Amino acid sequence: MKPKSPKPKPPRAPRGQPPDSVDAFMEGLSHPLKAEIEAVRAIIRGADKRIGEAIKWNAPSFLTQEHFATLKLHPPKAVQVVFHTGAKVKADARPLKIDDPSGLLKWAAPDRAVATFASMKDIQAHKAALVALVRQWLAQTSMTSPGACVTSMKPPRSPASGR
Fold first, then answer.
1. Tens of pLDDT along 65-109?
2. Which of 1, 110, 141, 154 sits CB 3.0–4.6 Å from 95 for a disulfide?
């Protein structure tokens, strides 16, 4: 019988949060899309071994050194992943160049976008696209990751024009 190889340790929870705080939060969560939330959590955590999670804005949030994505759980009609570069929109934010052929992202600002999933079927259909978005976001926002070379992208929607 082969000895099992040890599993890599997950990243530590940030300041003052126990490592299982998101699991405890999810245990107590009453939400009609709880299974969908768990599926999205698993996909995001599986996109890169450096990704940890914590509770931010009363929802699961994902981080490497800094938070980069947070789930929006309300209203409970869909699961939304809010990709961001911090809690506040920065006046000097540089636009991110994310290749999004699936059209999942709706841009709220040059450095903030939202992906919405209405059902488990929707999540499963866009699993590979979500993993690609997470990896690109990390590559462009993480201090420790090399920048991604993106050759095609959908331009961010201008909030003023609605395009």
1. 889 999 999 989 999 999 998 766 666 667 888 999 999 999 998
2. 110
pTM given for the model? 0.74
* Average confidence (pLDDT) over 42-61: 94
- The domains found in the chain, sorted by start residue, are 21-141 (3.90.1150)
Q: Which residues sit opposite 114 in a β-bridge?
A: 82, 106
Name residue 154's amino acid. K
Phi, psi of 49 (to 5 degrees): -65, -15
Cα gap 75→90, rounded to integer Å? 26
Distance CA 104, CA 78 (A): 13
pLDDT value for 79: 97
Q: Where are the alpha helices (DSSP H) in the chain?
A: 21-28, 34-46, 120-125, 127-141
